[in-house]
Each structure stands twice: as C-alpha cells, then as structure tokens.
C-alpha cells in the first residue's frame, strides 16, 4: 500500500469536496448557467413548465379537431375504396405512371420532353431571355399589371360574391368536383378518364398515331393540290372542244326537225338547212 497516498487521502477528499461545492455554488448562482436569464432552468421550464411545449402538445393531441382529426381525414381519403387510395395502391395509377415505360420515365428520360424544355435553345431559356415572354409579362402596363390593377380581373375574382366565393360556396363547383362519384373520383378511378387518356392504347397514344397518319397524308394532299390547276386547265380545253361539236351537230339535216317534234321551240331566225 502507498503510505503517502493513504496519508494524503483526507486532504485530497477535502479539496475535491471544496471544488464541488464551489462549482455547485457557481452553477446555482443568479449569474450561473442554471439560473441566469435564458439559462438551462428557463429552457426546461419552456419544455415542462405551465403552458409549456409538453402541455401544448397534450392539448393538441386531445383536441378532436386537431392532429388526430387530420390523421383520420388522411386515413379516410387514402382508404383502399377511395380514388386516392386506389391510385396509391400497388399496381395502381401512381405505380403505372412511374413504371419503366410510364409517362414519368418518358418525361425524365435523356432527350425527353424535360431535357428539350431545359436545353439552351429550349422553351425555358426563350421564356427567360431578355425581351422574352417573362419580360413582356412583367413590363409596365403589361399583362400582369393589367391583371392586378384596381378593378381588374383579379380584384373582380376575389371580391365578395365573386367568382372565388361562388367556386368555394356550399354546393358550389368545387364541392361537386370533390364529392363521392364526382369529377375527381371519375378522373382517378380504375379505368377512369385519366387512365383512359394516358394508358397503353389510350386516347393520347391514339392521337400520337393519328399525327403520324396525318404526316403521311399531307404529301398526298399537297400533290393533289398541285394537280387541281392542271385539272382545271384540262376541263377548260375539253369544254372548248365540246362547244364547236355541239354547234356542228345542230347543223346536221334532220336534227332540228327531231328537236321540234320533241316539243322544243325553234330559236328566232333559225332557218332549217333542208
């Protein structure tokens, strides 16, 4: 046993206790980290004190119209028998649109529509270019200024009883869109409008094929248009040849008499040749 250490043990214990007491005193002093303004005590009080964060959270969770109601609403909207739930289900509308050959992948693929839109000479750069569409939109007395002017279209839309109020009114257009069996449900349901439009062999794909058909027809229509003037010329030449033949036929013996026998009148001054 270390006799020196054993002999100095009481001294070391006393020094450590003194240091601990001084540290606790500094910690609990009005200027210390515990009790000073904005110190640890204030932070703990904000969390667990009266009307603190924990109490506010408890009230929020207990409120029937709070987070619980919002969660119940989200659960109800995304139920398996609702349009959004069917769209989010496995192999639903969202899965089909995000599949390898779906619209999203075709939109984001290399040299796809998004790449072309963001190219250096693409629509976005032209839109943001100096003197482009954005500059004209934000120009003095431009479309945006006229739209937001006093008494302008935006003010008429937002005024009491205006378009927005009628849209959001009870039994208004928005309610009809969102009601069960409404337009949104018809749009998102299985084999609904959106699926029919974007699905394989759907309306959009048929329109694309129809565009290729039109591309094949246009050269033939152009050739037909070029042939019409020549046809007009041929008809004019044929008419010029037929008129003398008709006049000559009227001069053959017996042709006038057969015409009179059939009840036709002889033109004034017409003398029969026979």
From TrEMBL:
Region (Disordered): 253-274
Lineage, uppermost ranks: Bacteria, Bacillati, Actinomycetota, Actinomycetes, Propionibacteriales
Protein name as catalogued: ABC transporter
